[in-house]
């Protein structure tokens, strides 16, 4: 898999650039045609590399699809990390991470279709994608609980609930965006307010 | 579509029973084989009805798939409604609705696979499924805001966030359930606490 060391991992800068081109081309090809209709020659053509070069990096269409899902998981994580800085409080981290995710998804709209198709094409990658992100969120919640910015006792259910919020806000406001929708900053602010204080009013 | 009046809507109790058998058999067939591998003859065989009978109800495999997605949306709604009663407060409604959804999904584990495959097979049904549920949740949130049990100003972002929580809790605790997981009542309780008061601790 891309990002993991195996005999196909590129060792030169040029190799890494070619791998990147192949993954980006694969994202477009899989998103536009779906896994079954997508072809390796379509990927290499749009990447502008020779067909034979493909096999320097991947054994099969399955292999590049798997690498792409893993690359997209990593991309989601990287987008969040780059937006965060150590001075932020735990709650701010969640707001900024959601906003970064919405922006990432907006620049990589194909991510929903590809991750969702993984459920059928490569169920293990599909599950790994959410397990990875869920674990990352759970770790942040625990850290926030330790610093007493969050309530004690947060764990897997809260992490998956939060992940679901973020995924569905992306579905609605990125993939199915409509004219007049609030912008990403406002969506992240509202989700964060919900996370901070809940929606219980005076009766609570 | 099942549930809508057209020339294929059964008018007798016996017709409705046959339709139900076909939809249940379709759920199993599509979940086990996927849309493309599934066949009308597989559906009628497992429903125990003649192949010709199928066409009294549906024009095609696409048509029964579409009807099935719509039937599952209705099933989710019905499960929630049956668990609710008018004496419940707005917050309790959300707790009970989530628990009912987890139980429904647990008895109809195929729902995730079928709804998710609709994204590829019948994108309009896929979107309609979530738009319908999102609108239902949004209405409940507005009602809760009116009765002042919820904060004012709740709308589409909060409804989709809540829908995402519920869908992902089902994914993790129904579809990917593990030994030692909390039970549905406890999951619904924790999600409801998060909804009521958020996760902000003393620093909030």
Automatic annotation (TrEMBL), chains A, B:
Pfam families: TetR_N (PF00440). InterPro entries: DNA-bd_HTH_TetR-type_CS, Homeodomain-like_sf, HTH-type_Tx_Regulator, HTH_TetR, Tet_transcr_reg_TetR-rel_C_sf. Residues 39-58 bind DNA. Residues 16-76 form the HTH tetR-type domain. The keyword Plastid does not apply. The keyword Lyase does not apply. GO terms for molecular function: DNA binding. It comes from the Bacteria. Keywords: DNA-binding. This is TetR/AcrR family transcriptional regulator. It comes from Erythrobacter aureus. The lineage of its organism: Bacteria, Pseudomonadati, Pseudomonadota, Alphaproteobacteria, Sphingomonadales.
């Amino acid at each position: 898999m891309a990002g993991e060391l195996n005999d196909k991992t590129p060792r030169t800068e040029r190799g890494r650039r070619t791998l990147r081109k192949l993954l980006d081309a694969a994202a477009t090809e899989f998103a536009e045609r779906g896994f079954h209709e997508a072809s390796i020659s379509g990927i290499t053509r749009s990447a502008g590399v020779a067909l034979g070069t493909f096999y320097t990096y991947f054994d099969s269409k399955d292999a590049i699809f798997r690498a792409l899902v893993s690359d997209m998981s990593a991309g989601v994580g990287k987008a969040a990390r780059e937006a965060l800085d150590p001075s932020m409080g735990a709650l701010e981290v969640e707001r900024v991470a959601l906003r970064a995710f919405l922006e990432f998804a907006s620049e990589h709209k194909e991510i929903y279709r590809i991750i969702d198709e993984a459920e059928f094409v490569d169920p293990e990658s599909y599950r790994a994608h959410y397990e990875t992100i869920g674990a990352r969120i759970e770790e942040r919640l625990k850290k926030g609980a330790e610093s007493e910015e969050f309530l004690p006792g947060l764990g897997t259910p809260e992490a998956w609930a939060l992940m679901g919020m973020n995924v569905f806000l992306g579905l609605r406001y990125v993939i199915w965006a409509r004219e007049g929708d609030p912008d990403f900053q406002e969506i992240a602010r509202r989700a964060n307010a919900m996370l901070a204080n809940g929606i219980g009013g005076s009766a609570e």
